[in-house]
Amino acid sequence: MSSFFSRTLGFNRTRKKDIPKGLFTKCPSCGEMLSQADLEKNLFVCRACGYHFPMDRISRIQMLSDGETFEEWDEGLTSKDPLKFTGTDSYEAKLKSNQEKTGFKDAVTIGQAKLEGRDIGLGVMDFKFLAASMGSVVGEKITRLIEKSTERELPVVLVCASGGARMYEGMLSLMQMAKTSGALARHAQKNLPYIPILTHPTTAGVMASFATLGDVILAEPQALIGFAGPRVIKETPLQDLPEGFQRSEFLRDKGLIDRVVPRGEMRDTVSGLLDKMMAARE
Ligand SMILES: [Zn+2]
Question: Is this prediction's pTM over 0.90?
Answer without folding.
Answer: yes
